[in-house]
Fold this sequence. Notes:
The chain has helices spanning 35-52, 73-83; strands at 2-7, 12-17, 20-23, 60-67, 92-96, 106-113. The chain is α+β, with helices and mostly antiparallel strands.
Amino acid sequence: MIQRFDVGPRLSEMAVHNGTAYLAGQVPNDASLDIRGQTREVLAAIDALLARAGTDKSKILMTQIFLTDLADFEGMNEVWDAWVTPGHTPPRATVQARLARPGWRIEVVVTAAC
């Protein structure tokens, strides 16, 4: 069985199947924030979705981070390092990419065990 969360016409925010949660790319609500603020918003959204699936950031299996400018790498990592659970840091890829909306500096995709 597949359980979908916040199903829309184009995508679902999360799908859970066989004990694994697959999150859609999470983006900031406030595009006027700097990279630290946008990263905090995105990570808070991830926390909320994972909680709805009955899991948390300590069970993240893989993370993909998309930044519009690699100059933001240090600021994003500052927030990321304070957020991740010590001893449970997941495998991660970070790449530069053009995102769908101007002002978005970061998008994060997470897969986690439930």
